[in-house]
Amino acid sequence: MAAFLLRRLAGHAVLAVLAASLAYLLAAAALDPRADFEDRAPRPPASAIDAELSRLNLNDRTPVLRRYRTWAGGVARGDFGRTWQGEPVNAEMWRRTWVSLRLLLPGAVLGCVLGVLLGAYAAVRHGRAADRAITFASYLLLAVPVFVLAALLQIAASEVNDLAGVRVFEWVGESSPGAGEGAFGALGGFGDRLRHLLLPTVTVALAQLALYVRYQRGTMLDVLNADFVRTARAKGLRWRSALLRHGLRTAMIPMTTYFAYTSGLLLLGAMFTEKIFGWHGLGEWLIDSITRGDVNVVAAVNCLAAGCVLLAGLVSDVVNGFLDPRVRVGAA
Amino acid sequence: MNVLEVRGLNVTYAPDVRAVRGVGFDVAPGEVLGIVGESGSGKSAVALATLGLLPPGARVRGSVRLRGRELLGRPDAELSRVRGRDLAMVFQDPLSALTPVHTVGDQIAETIRVHAGATRAAARARAAELLELVGIPDAPRRARAYPHEFSGGMRQRVMIAMAIANDPVAIVADEPTTSLDVTIQAQVLDVLRTAKEATGAAIVLITHDLGVVAGFADRVMVMYAGRAVESGPVDEVYRRPRMPYTIGLLQSLPRIDGTARGARRIEGAPPDATEPAAGCPFAPRCPVSVPDCADAEPEPALTGPSGHLVACVNTVATADPARVFPAPDRLPVPARPPREERRVVLEVNELVRHHPLYRGTLIKRRVGTVHAVDGIGFDVREGESLGLVGESGCGKTSALMEILRLARPQGGRVSVFGKDTSDLSKGRRKALRRDIQVVFQDPFTSLDPRMRVADILAEPLVTHGVPPERTRERVEKLLELVGLDPAHACRYPHGLSGGQRQRVGIARALALEPRLLLLDEPVAALDVSVQAGVIDLLEELRARLGLAYLFVAHDLAVVRRIADRVAVMYHGRIVEIGSAPEVYGSPAHPYTRALLDAVPLPDPGRERHRRRVPLQGDPPDPASPPRGCRFRPRCPRYASFPDDASRSPCDAQDPVSRPLSGAVRRDQSVACHYPLLPGEGVR
């Protein structure tokens, strides 16, 4: 198993390097940081702009491959260069990664688990009212873009707040200023953070859940009438335990592959979620950097995203190998 | 005292498919009841209804009593306490019937723990014991393996171990050996016999194979269109069948002893289960039907000794089974010059087809070679049919496909009508394809579902530039040639029965008037009563059109019926080749002998008294041929040698094929260091 994972990791590393390089070259070719410097008032002299751009490795008069070499050399040493303002990219990136993780992780886990359970349940109740309700809801969620969903949730939350007379839901930023200094001290601060997390988590979870429900329902339907579930019942297992012990695990195997691909979608979706809920995470940073023409930041975020997707791929391989003994043998 | 009593069982699938209609039977402890029927006869529905495992939406009426207790209508919770403990089941396909993600030991242990509440360790130990009982070597270690690490025969042993885990009083086995090779089938039937003796359980054996029932069952029940049409003691039913359907089945069956050459056959196909029955469902296919048959469905009535029940109006006509079906018109055997004087249409020399085995995702490494075809040679002459037989994985289909490629093989030489395929130009190759055509195994997947029959038949003609006005005429001719109605031309394949589809497949192959047909298991996917018709058609076409056949099949009886010459393949090699009567009559290779031994005969008396030593072990891994003779690890002759000196040629050298000599063996070659003498090893 370890050898198999190492080989997979090596394969993934090659892909990550390719993806990151392409992202840098695209960003360096398409974005125009010079325009931003020239728009400053007062407009700095051309020689100063050139010097500043060269210092930040953003000068479009330097051949793109030389800039790439400089950038790649830095990345190899673990240095992603400097932002447009001259700050190191690394420090800001790690800070924002942590923010994004706090925002996305609960929603992603919740969406995944609930999606699998609801999908399996819908399959078991195939054709009945519960199945149809779940199917309808998941299609509805799939049809609604993340930003619309978030806006709708905000409207609903403000209605609830008005009705309750207290601010049950908060949806701007990560915390309210001064929440940690109330009567409950640090605990109050934590509660306030949770309150802020509620709505974004629901948004992320719902968007994730809809897809998981569709896929899990499909795979579960396949095993519902599988011969081995019938064998389990012939052994004396009741229908429900035959499905849980023999059906569900087999039905989850294809989902592991799917997990890797949704994690990419998750990061993309985060841009909207962060913008709408005012979290200063990676997604928001990426959008802002693209509008500013901040090549190094765009490349760094893309690099991280590529790493994340491939890491998720590795995790899915591990889970797949854990769930499905056939894979272990095939890969050895 | 009967353990299992079924009365008036009716199963209806949604929306209105009446799968089983009023079936009843009893089984006593230690007794084996064989239920025989073709696909769609309702035999599997009987099995599932007995265990209460019918899919949701199926309606069931009647009574199923296990030791006097009614099972039908009880809730799932109560039934689950009976299932797996008192009443167990063995399913058909052991690959899909075992959960892929749990070890086999755990799956057996689960059966024990669900009912007996044993500790995990105790259940595991018992699982290992059970695996030992069903003949899995090194059981404690193998119990920790997953189903995909077992061969088909071994998986079926696991299924049987699971079924007998709680000492059931009755076991229902639904086609337990259908997906297995004959050699493995013999092994598994032995295990089932052991299991029966160990538990004393009553067994209901459901199968389509009359040979399996003959050797294994005490009583037999024949099902047709959801009804039990005949039942009684095996000897009685096989010797004096009284229902025309049973008579037809028994008489149309190809046999390895060759006695059924030019056998009778049942015309037509089984009825559609959605149409309500009016009168006897077999009447449209019955040669002795009388007007009374259309009045009402006949009820089973006692017609012979020891409870021989027959559901037939006209039992007077069936008193002599031999006279029920008219003897077929003997095909005029065309006067052919002796074999040596006929032209060679296909010659294969030292043909090799290896598949590389790769591992790795990004960087592929070659880790081995599958020796699918490893140097085979034979020739097929004008008007002759050569049968290629062997267990699954022996390379017989690979050989066929390699010939069909008409390209330069990896090794060796293929020449068709005297033309070497390795240096054909593109145009010449296409032209040559007119003369060599193929019929595939599965008529359900080898015809494009979106094309009408007429278009399917016209396609080869259009491809080869036959003018459209002649195409239509030719399509009509072809339909007539294979015994189909002209009205079938505008149907889609799904509107045809299995036998009709295979006839379309044959007609398509014949469209370009080829001289050589390659047939890949052409009747394996068809029901017994339909098989005979297609085999007859192939024989007739060969006689009328002077075709030559290269015929791949795993069913030795079918090959015996249609082949003039036989080549037996093992592990990518031809181990024995010769004229069919000689190879079947006096096999010279121990493998041929073992294959023939493993085929069950549809004759209870002979089958029961045959002393048979089943071939041990599984078909070999084609990626790792053993040193020396490839059959050595499974060879009963090699195993019986007392000293190393006589074994040394087998260890050292892979034997080459050489012709045998003798009065009876004029056309027979064998690749064995110690070929069997005529009459030797016959049991």
TrEMBL record, chain A:
Signal peptide: 1-29
UniProt keyword Transmembrane present: yes
Any matching Pfam family: BPD_transp_1
InterPro entries: MetI-like (IPR000515), MetI-like_sf (IPR035906)
Domain ABC transmembrane type-1: 97-316
Membrane topology: Multi-pass membrane protein
UniProt keyword annotation of Transit peptide present: no
Keyword annotations: Cell membrane, Membrane, Signal, Transmembrane, Transmembrane helix, Transport
Residue intervals passing through the bilayer: 103-124, 136-157, 197-215, 258-277, 297-319
UniProt family annotation: Belongs to the binding-protein-dependent transport system permease family.
PANTHER family referenced in this protein's UniProt entry, alphabetically: DIPEPTIDE TRANSPORT SYSTEM PERMEASE PROTEIN DPPB-RELATED
Name used for this protein in its record: ABC transporter permease
Automatic annotation (TrEMBL), chain B:
UniProt entry tagged with the keyword Nucleotide-binding: yes
Record keywords: ATP-binding, Nucleotide-binding, Transport
Pfam families: ABC_tran, oligo_HPY
Name of the protein this chain belongs to: Dipeptide ABC transporter ATP-binding protein
Annotated region (Disordered), positions in chain: 598-664
Any one Gene Ontology molecular-function term assigned to this protein's record: ATP binding
Family: Belongs to the ABC transporter superfamily.
Ranges where the ABC transporter domain occurs: 4-250, 352-596
InterPro entries: AAA+_ATPase, ABC_transp_ATP-bind, ABC_transporter-like_ATP-bd, ABC_transporter-like_CS, Oligopep_ABC_C, P-loop_NTPase
Organism for this UniProt entry: Actinomadura yumaensis
UniProt KW Zinc keyword: no
